[in-house]
Amino acid sequence: MNISKLKLFNFRNYKLQTVEFSDTVNVIFGANAQGKTNILEAIYIASNGFSHRTADIRECLRWKENNSAVAVALYRRNVEFSIRYQLSRLNSKKFTINDSPVRPSELAETFNVVLFCPEDLWMIKGAPKLRRTFLDQEISQASRVYAKTLLKFNRVLQQRNSLLKNINARICPLELLADWDEQFAVLASRIIEKRFEALKRISMLANLAQRKLSSEQENLQIVYNIYGMTENIIPGKDWYLEQLKRNVATDIARMSTTIGPQRDDFDVLINDYDCKHYGSQGQQRSSILALKLAELEYIKSETGDYPVMLLDDVMSELDHSRQQQLLNNLAGKVQTFITTTDSSCLDRRDNIRMHRVANGEIFE
């Protein structure tokens, strides 16, 4: 899977720009605030329908413009695809694949990416939501069934929480919870089963990457933590139903569901120590890098194709040895995009294409 061409119209600080890419490594360099990350953002949106930088995608429109368009030409198993999307300040966003309208959730069936950006450095020591989001996005790219299940679960969770508020306000009777509890328990058990299965494989793949990055000195392990459970087992529908009944008074008082996949977390261990609390900054960085490399291999094993790798201003966060380990791991098998302010941090290789960005223009 690789991108051959990107067209931008009124996207961020780009008025009208077309750029062609190498199918190996593309380095996008230039001073700060010139538009390097905007290129990666345009590609990222084409893979899943939302931005990693803002919740309001209309912020991607060029200043004082009302409409924007992006086209990504890519090859997957020697078949060409064209993904296009239009953004508007007045209307909803529109996506097409080969001129056929699609929902944003359907984009991942054609195009997958793995993004590593500075914000990911908080994934280890940040809030549990960051780790859940990482895991859900990774599995959703590889499994359309999981993505649909997660969407249904979030809708049921929202409806149950709304009902809890009405019960708390004595607007609705307690008996109405039974139907929502049943749906919640079924979907929650399916999500947890898939998360355990995925993390088992990701943990193994991440450990292999961590050992390479640390010259065989460090082992990485991922431990999933189910909120409210001390045993390391996979809970089923009956367990969730029991917990929902046990916590019903607390749920009503708080007007939210206090058990379920939306509250779970996972720990990253380096040599059996919790990396969040006891890992050095270097270990935390390398463990996230190992997770991203594992994500590449996981998606490849599930879909049959490597995704495109997007590295946004992270090379400066890695020492020279880890930079080279990363490039060696990616070279020849994964199309990679790297943004940086200092291109000298990268060894000049035959398979690297350089793109300079200045004032919203790209020069090869």
Q: What attributes does this structure have?
A:
364 residues, alpha/beta, Rossmann fold, Glutathione S-transferase Yfyf (Class Pi), Chain A, domain 2, 2 domains, six-stranded antiparallel sheet, six-stranded mixed sheet, 41% helix, 24% strand, globular
Describe it for me?
There is one protein chain. This protein has 364 residues and is of the alpha/beta class. It folds into two domains: 1-112 and 308-364, 3-Layer(aba) Sandwich (Rossmann fold); 118-304, Glutathione S-transferase Yfyf (Class Pi), Chain A, domain 2 (Up-down Bundle), CATH 1.20.1050. Helix content is 41%, strand content 24%. The chain contains ten helices and 15 strands. It has helices at residues 36-48, 122-125, 128-142, 144-168, 177-213, 237-246, 248-254, 275-278, 281-303, 320-330, and strands at 2-11, 14-20, 25-29, 67-76, 79-88, 94-97, 100-102, 113-116, 220-225, 265-270, 273-274, 308-312, 336-340, 352-358, 361-363. A hairpin with a 2-residue loop joins strand 14 (352-358) and strand 15. Helix 3 (128-142) runs parallel beside helix 9 and helix 5 (177-213) packs across helix 6 (237-246). The protein starts with a strand and ends with a strand.
